[in-house]
Specification:
The chain is of the alpha/beta class. The protein is built from 17 helices and eleven strands. The chain has two domains: about 230 residues, Type I PLP-dependent aspartate aminotransferase-like (Major domain) (Aspartate Aminotransferase, domain 2), CATH 3.40.640.10; about 140 residues, Alpha-Beta Complex (Aspartate Aminotransferase, domain 1). The chain starts with 7 loop residues before the first helix and ends with a helix.
Length: about 475
């Protein structure tokens, strides 16, 4: 058995302690039909088998990382009370735990003062950050790179804010010259810098964007939903380190604890450096609960009902695994990055593959070598399917020609194998190696990738013969 069940007795003991905290005894919750409930749960377990093994190191596709066992147990423990962190009298304890946990996330980025809260994920967190930007600068344009998450443009549509995408360089980072042109030509209110793009894990040049702001008036919002925790890693590339070191100078940050923070879905977080933006949330309603003069989280959130369970799980995880450079949490992040760099090196040494982008974090992008872009794309799809048959689960991503024909070094130019660009993009294989087990499982991952590639080589070669 690979799914943990040995920790369940810890939950029973924690429930006993929780129950003892309430003075007035209450009859135990009556389960109408224990046997029927067990039958339904077993049926659900069968239904849930129709999933990829997200918890296993052989799942190396999308950004799916299993919660830490303590997060699972803490989340479950809170459900016996089911607190609502919208108001203090709906989630008194978990509201306090949320403020404490959010403070630790802000401190990780070097902020001593802040305003922030948890939310359902990065999309809502980014929505709140851009909503504040729009309130502070009505009608001003929001700018993000072409490799930024698509939700930024969608959010601007919802908020009625102008949106402008900016080209990227060959490494998937926001192009500074392109940004300067947009800043000169348009009334830009916010620049969104991505620290860890979803497709390739690229790090935008944040320090340079901060420098540009000295002579212009715009807010800087950092989307670090995926990559934010890597600020704890001291062995990043010099460019990435400089970008992360510039984070304390920005106006708002988004980070998703349900990605690298070992939390159950959904758990995102939005942070503002200036606590006074809380005034923008101010509202009056006769049905809002006030049992204290202290700030309650519903006053600084666009969401109303919010589960206290997420705060309980994050707090427990941070108690067990503090956010410290060199600590066990950071060491596991380092393992993920090491796994990505190991896979990247093996791909570069194998004549069957192109891996044009050296991974900044723990995402590796590669494609089978082929003379034409269309053949390379089809070959990537074949390897993706064959790898799944071998129990190795990858992902697919489409990248523009510019990111495949040159990279951050002359070596990448020499390695580019595509000669005929019969289409302007290439379908690539993508692997997010975000589990610590990926580092020690790399030999097996490579073995199965090798087998899968060999199994489809004939189809791949056949497609190549029909190429120009």
């Amino acid at each position: 058995m690979s799914l943990d069940s040995t920790s369940l007795p810890l939950l029973a003991e924690a429930l006993r302690i929780l129950d003892e905290g309430f003075a007035d005894p209450f009859p135990a919750e009556q389960i109408p039909d224990f046997e029927a409930m067990g039958t339904v749960l077993c049926e659900l377990a069968v239904e849930m088998r129709d999933n990829y093994p997200y918890h296993h190191p052989l799942y190396a596709g999308q950004m799916l990382k299993p919660p830490h066992p303590v997060a699972r147990l803490a989340y479950a423990l809170s459900l016996w009370l089911n607190p609502n962190n919208h108001a203090l009298d709906g989630g008194r304890a978990t509201s306090r735990l949320e403020k404490e946990s959010v403070g630790k996330l802000a401190a990780m980025f070097g902020w001593e003062s802040h305003l922030g809260h948890l939310c359902s994920g990065g999309t809502i967190a980014n929505l709140e950050a851009l909503w504040v930007s729009g309130r502070l600068g009505p009608g001003r344009t929001v700018v993000a790179s072409t490799q930024a998450h698509y939700t930024h443009e969608r959010i601007c549509g919802v908020l009625g804010l102008p949106f402008q995408s900016v080209d990227c360089d060959a490494s998937g980072r926001m192009d500074l010259d392109a940004l300067k042109r947009v800043l000169d030509e348009q009334d830009v209110g916010t620049v969104v810098a991505t620290l860890g793009s979803t497709a390739v894990g690229a790090i935008d040049p944040l320090a340079d964007i901060v420098e540009l702001r000295k002579n212009r008036s715009f807010r800087i919002h950092v989307d670090a939903a995926y990559g934010g925790y890597f600020t704890l890693i001291r062995t990043l590339s010099s460019k990435a380190r400089v970008a992360f070191d510039a984070v304390p100078s920005v106006d708002s940050i988004v980070i998703d604890p349900h990605k690298h923070g070992l939390q159950p879905y959904g758990c995102g977080c939005v942070l503002f450096q200036d606590p006074s933006v809380g005034r923008l949330y101010r509202h009056e309603s006769p049905y809002t609960y006030f049992t204290s003069n202290d700030l309650h989280l519903g006053e600084i959130s666009l969401e109303c009902s919010r589960p206290g369970a997420g705060a309980a799980a994050l707090w427990a995880t941070l108690r067990l695994l503090p956010l410290q450079p060199g600590g066990s949490f950071a060491v596991d992040l380092e393992k993920s990055r090491n796994a990505a760099r190991t896979l990247y090196r093996r791909l570069r040494e194998d004549s069957r593959f192109d891996a044009p982008l050296e991974p900044e974090l723990d995402i590796v992008v590669f494609t089978p070598r082929a003379r034409s872009a269309s053949v390379a794309s089809r070959a990537a799809e074949l390897v993706f399917e064959a790898a799944a048959e071998e129990g190795l689960h990858l992902a697919l991503v489409t990248l523009p020609r510019a990111m495949m024909t040159r990279g951050s070094s002359a070596e990448n130019v020499e390695r580019a194998s595509t000669e005929y660009w019969d289409q302007e993009s290439v379908r690539c294989l993508r692997s997010v190696l975000m589990k610590p087990g990926h580092d020690t499982f790399m030999d097996e991952i490579w073995r199965r990738l090798d087998v899968a590639t060999g199994n489809v080589a004939h189809a791949w070669a056949g497609a190549a013969r029909t190429a120009p």
